Amino acid sequence: MGSQGHGQVQRWQDRWWAVGLLVLVVWVGIRLAFDGWSGWPGILVGGLVYAGFMTWFVMRRRRRDARAVGTDAARVAGAGAAYREER
């Protein structure tokens, strides 16, 4: 899913593993802040499930948006960089 073939360099924030890792870190951090360290195994398992679901949802949405405008999903991911270059 890299956009390197389109002349653009894909940002790390646009990769599926970065989205999943970000969701996991935020989820676990918030849950640990509210529940404390005593429930860390359940929080980690729940975070993995939630991060997997959110990663799937975000990537699915990106593919659907790209299909709607008639382009490749990798090009939609780097659209912000292309916009900044035009300005």
**How helix-rich are the residues, as a percent range?**
over 70%
Listing every helix as H and every strand as E from the N terminus to the C terminus, the arrangement reads HHHH
Q: Roughly how many Å is the radius of gyration?
A: 16 Å
Largest sheet: none
Mean pLDDT: 76
What is the CA–CA distance across the termini?
Answer: 26 Å
Number of helices: 4
Task: Give the uncertain stretches in residue-range form.
Answer: 78-87
Structural class: mainly alpha
Give the overall shape: elongated
DSSP E strands, number: 0
Strand content: under 5%
Structure characteristics:
0% strand; 87 residues; mainly alpha
Commentary on this structure:
- The structure is a single chain.
- The chain has 87 residues and is an all-alpha fold.
- It is elongated.
- It is built from four helices and no strands.
- Helix 1 runs antiparallel to helix 2.
- The C terminus is likely disordered.
- The two termini are 26 Å apart.
